[in-house]
Known about the structure:
Layout: H1 3-21, H2 36-49
Amino acid sequence: xxxFPLGSVATLVMSSLYYRYGGWRKQRLVVPAETPASAAAAxxxxxxxxxxxxxxxxx
Length: 59
């Protein structure tokens, strides 16, 4: 039964150290801008990758 409190304490220590010293604050959640060549090819690639992208609604 010691595994539950020791595991919780270990998790607390590791997550606190990651919060304090981890590099997560420096990372950005920004999508890079597309170039014009890749933007033109994107619809064809999307249609090839997703079968539903090639279908057209009827009616």
